[in-house]
Amino acid sequence: MGVEEKSLDELVRKELQKEKNKRSHRRVVGITVGALVVVIAVVVLIAVFVCPVLQISGDSMEETLHDGDIVVAVNNKKLKTGDVIAFYYGNDILLKRVIATPGQWVNIDEEGNVYVNDQLLEEPYVSEKTRGDFDIELPYQVPEGRLFVLGDHRSVSVDSRNRAIGCIEQKMIIGKIVFRVWPLSDMGIVK
């Protein structure tokens, strides 16, 4: 073998190695892209069906939640007084606080104090009590399979006090709001 043949052999080996490296690189990229697609699909399914992520629009839940906040809901069938929930209303998603459950009686006095079954409801989340805009007859009994909900910012909230919204059917509920993820300065559990 001459010098030219050795150089040619070395060039061929180098080219073969480059091709092997290219195939290996393509395989790694393909596996990585496939794994990312699966992870994204799983995250989307969880976000849609298990823990929906919602952005707040409006101020009916002020001081608890603010316009632009991003929150996580958990599908929870055992809701109780004080829970903040998300529910469908037409093509919109609304957030309100559960005040009373099926069969309970709700009353609101002139100063905006809320009574459930004649017991004053402690509401540390409400900064300004008001009777607000209502067109239901008080006291009001919550029908079976429904929840009576109010916004925390009572003077602007349209909620179960008004027949336009009324009491919420269980099947309309998306879930209980459990965590605020944005803004980062307010990240934490929603109470």
Provide an overview of this structure.
The protein is of the alpha+beta class and 191 residues long. Helices cover 25% and strands 28% of the residues. The strands form two sheets. Strands 1, 2, 3, 4, 9, 10, 11 and 12 form an eight-stranded antiparallel sheet that branches. The chain has a four-stranded antiparallel sheet with strand order 7-6-5-8, with no helix packed on it. A hairpin with a 5-residue loop joins strand 5 and strand 6 (114-116). The chain is rod-shaped.
Q: Could you describe the largest sheet, including whether it forms a barrel? A: 8 strands, antiparallel
Binned strand content: 25-35%
Overall pLDDT score: 82
Radius of gyration: 29 Å
Unreliable runs: none
- Decide which structural class fits the backbone: alpha+beta
**What is the string of SSEs from the N terminus onward?**
HEEEEEEEEEEEE
Number of strands: 12
Q: What would you call the shape?
A: rod-shaped
Count every helix, treating DSSP H or I runs of 4 or more residues as helices: 1
What distance separates the N and C termini? 83 Å
**In percent, how helical is the residue content?**
25-40%
